[in-house]
Amino acid sequence: MFENLGHVLYHVLIVLFPILFYYQFLNNGAIGNTTKVNFRFLVTLLVMLFCTMSFPIEVTDGSYYDQKVIPVILAFLYGGWMTGLAVMASMLYYLFILGENNFLVMVMNYSIVTVFLVFSTKIYRNMTLKKKVLSISILLVVISITRALSFMYRGESDEIFLAMIVSLITWVSLVTAIMIIENLTMQMQLQHELQRSEKLKVVSELAASVAHEVRNPMTSTRGFLQLMSEDDNLSSAQKRYIEISIEELDRAQSIIQDYLSLAKPNKQGMDRINISQELKHVIQLMSTYTAINNTAICHKIDEGLHIKANKGEMKQVLINLIKNAIEAIDKGGTVTVNASSSRGTVLIEIIDDGMGMTPQQVAKLGTPFYSTKDKGTGIGLTISFQIIELLQGKIEVKSEIGKGTTFTIKLPEETSV
Question: Does pTM surpass 0.85?
Answer without folding.
Answer: no
